[in-house]
């Protein structure tokens, strides 16, 4: 039996163990261990790899962000932030048809920004919002579906634990991935609000109404949310301002939410120890899954299965977008049976090499030359990108330069010590969208404009775009029947509601998610608009 065949057969063996309720981390570890024994023919290599793999996996500094974000979520719950967010949103939206459900989605989005876990967001907001929705006559299936869908915002709106794991797997910047997730996260929340609006119009009896809250009480409720805004601003703003790394930002967030919980009376010696214990257990579970995935993926790499799949896909003749669609459909199907973290850890080492070999054309060499040339010219004193753009337009139109543009040309020429003809040829190339030749690149003293830089930029943009898409379809899996994890968590809190009722209502939110996926695939700029290269 060949090594590749052993690697391929490990997939059904792994899925069989998962369906038999073997913990996912243990299932991947056993599949990797047995596979290595079969491939190498002895036990020394597998057990030697166990020692080295454990060290190399957990020596990653970036993994320390996980317990910090988990602890921040626990402290936020103890500090009453979930209740404050829901009450504030309910005050402004509750009087509308379906308004309490919309408030629950808004509160989930806010809590997701200080939690990072979908399951934790769903469970926490379920305890807060479910009684209120019942109180105002909301149908059980609709209520549980709303909270299950709203909980998925916990892994999309930064900070996100799953996004951190993805960044580590594909070796990308965590802060850039957080930034890329903001607009898709906002679109997700708005899409869920729209889904609620459509649902209550199709089924008017599914949602009751509550009295309008006076503006005085609305603003009073908003004031109570200020601790949440401070924590989010400190963590997210501090990361993007360069004050601290994402890991340090997570520690700052944990400290901030801990102080708020202590000030509100929710953090005592007993609850502090409980928070540490729960965080340690959750971290241990996640880390064991990471170790199992690392061991299994190391076995797959030895069998050359991922490389073989990548080579077959690239040479298949299918367009990059078609291959991406097939991958996303696979995630949607797999999400019906597996949790999000397990899917990411199991599949990204296989699918990412495939995506790296595809050209989605995010940045061309012309784009790179133009951007670097504008940066270089804008570095000249008193020259801005707007002036450079004006010069490009003037050369493209074949008109004469005004006094300000002539002065700008002289400044640029003196700065780079180049001849008039060379500078004119540079602007003529930029104005018609041509690549710069070697002499022009040297004259502008440009750096990082070679093929390697272009491939690096395109790889980074692809990784970020693909990561957000994967996160969304994984999120859909959390609410997709028959085994959506969020559905079971919320339905367990409302035992009077039949699971089939939840399934029917949640399909409106699944439809919203699928529309969002199509939108982000068709327009990658929505994800990449804030990402600089």
List the helices and strands and how they pair.
Blueprint (H helix, E strand, L loop, with lengths): L2 H17 L4 H17 L3 H15 L6 H14 L2 H13 L5 H14 L5 H18 L4 H12 L9 H10 L3 H29 L12 H9 L2 H16 L4 H18 L5 H35 L1 H10 L5 H15 L5 H17 L8 H14 L6 H13 L5 H14 L3 H12 L6 H6 L7 H27 L7 H9 L5 H24 L2 H4 L5
In percent, how much strand structure appears in the residues? under 5%
Percent range of helical residues: over 70%
**How many helix segments?**
26
Number of strands: 0
Helices and strands, in N-to-C order? HHHHHHHHHHHHHHHHHHHHHHHHHH
Structural class: mainly alpha
The first-to-last residue Cα distance is 46 Å
The profile of the biggest β sheet is:
none
Based on CA atoms alone, the radius of gyration comes out at 26 Å
For the residues shown, what is the average pLDDT? 85
Oligomer: single chain
Q: Could you list the spans in which at least 5 consecutive residues all have pLDDT below 50?
A: none
Dominant shape: globular
